[in-house]
Write a structure and sequence with these properties.
The chain is mostly helical. The chain has 13 helices and four strands. The longest helix is centred in the first third of the chain and has 24 residues.
């Protein structure tokens, strides 16, 4: 059975909750309830959020580059006004029909991949034979839209585990990507000249841009004043932050935390980014204001490792039930750090 994964190339149009007419017209889905169709429609709308965000920053794509969604049963149950048990049955029905694929991801989340329904065979008399049933509307580039049409677009936030800003009109999603072309280069009228910039500043700006989705700009501003405008120093701070996070994560993995859990990623664990600027500020204060740190490099690494460990622990306690397994993991991390401390003293 082919699985026609929804991508940017076959994104449905329209500012509405779309129930694909193929679900009604194709006899293959004749036993599918309207509730199941509505659930597929909700998944489809969330999928457009993932596709839109993947175009902006490359998020919401799996290892194979396919878009996916998170959509909990309790969220769907609230929207469709049914029980979570009902949603479980509906989701299983959609999976049986090849309309979704569900894979466990982490301790509590499930990645859902959404497929487009199959069209009925040519010899099948469709039940909703509307005049425009076979008409496909094209997604217009932003340059072809009128100002009035754009002014009617409104932003809508999804209720997902990671905020996905999605224009309510899906026609607004597929806009022309910015290019390096200018009116001058297109017309060939004259050669564009660019002002000279400091190379170190340009490299640092590029570093900020590259990691903007993981390290907020305000966090960069906490250590850049101590870099003397040198790219190598700024890069050292960035590398040390990621190294500290990696070492901290290894402590939890060795203590039994599943490797695929989202708590260990910047993308899913917002605690990492939210307090990063303040943590760096505190480290800088210890290193450069009080002048009591003999080895600033080692101190900064240790400080940031402790920060990431604490934020991981906080996320686990706030988002997961404290099961015996989780309690064992947390105590295992404590044991690891106590052992390290003992070894250093000895």
């Amino acid at each position: 059975m082919s699985f026609n994964t929804m991508t940017v190339n076959n994104l449905p149009n329209g500012n509405y909750l779309p129930i694909d007419l193929n679900l009604i017209n194709n006899p293959k889905y004749e036993n599918l309830s309207i509730e199941a169709m509505m659930l597929h429609a909700l998944y489809t709308m969330r999928m457009t959020c993932s596709i839109y965000n993947s175009q902006q920053d490359g998020s919401w794509l799996d290892e194979k580059g396919l878009p996916y969604i998170y959509f909990s049963n309790d969220e769907a149950a609230e929207l469709l006004r049914v029980s979570e048990r009902k949603i479980t049955n509906l989701r299983n029905r959609l999976a049986e029909q090849g309309l979704i694929k569900v894979f466990r991801h982490g301790l509590k989340n499930y990645r859902i991949y959404v497929a487009n329904p199959e069209a009925p065979a040519e010899n099948v008399a469709v039940k909703l034979a509307f005049k425009n049933y076979t008409t496909s509307k094209k997604v217009l580039p932003a340059t072809e839209k009128t100002a009035a049409a754009l002014s009617e677009s409104r932003d809508a936030n999804s209720a997902d585990t990671q905020t996905q800003n999605l224009p309510t009109s899906t026609q607004k999603q597929l806009v022309n990507k910015p290019t390096n072309k200018t009116s001058a280069t297109e017309s060939g009228a004259h050669q564009v000249s660019y002002p000279q910039v400091d190379k170190e500043s340009a490299l640092i700006a590029g570093l900020q841009s590259r990691y903007a989705q993981l390290i907020p700009n305000v966090a960069f501003q906490r250590f850049l004043p101590f870099c003397d405008g040198k790219y190598d120093k700024a890069k050292w701070f960035v590398d040390t932050i990621f190294k500290a996070k990696y070492v901290s994560n290894q402590q939890f993995l060795k203590a039994g935390l599943p490797a695929e859990t989202e708590v260990l990623t910047f993308e899913e664990n917002q605690y990492y980014k939210n307090g990063l600027a303040d943590a760096i500020a505190k480290a800088m204060e210890q290193m450069y204001r009080f002048n009591k740190v003999r080895n600033p490099e080692a101190f900064f690494f240790a400080f940031m490792r402790g920060y990431f460990t604490e934020k991981t622990r906080q996320y686990l306690l706030d988002h997961y039930e404290l099961t015996p397994e989780l309690e064992k993991t947390l105590s295992g991390v404590k044991h690891v750090f106590s052992k390290e401390k003992f070894n250093k003293i000895g």
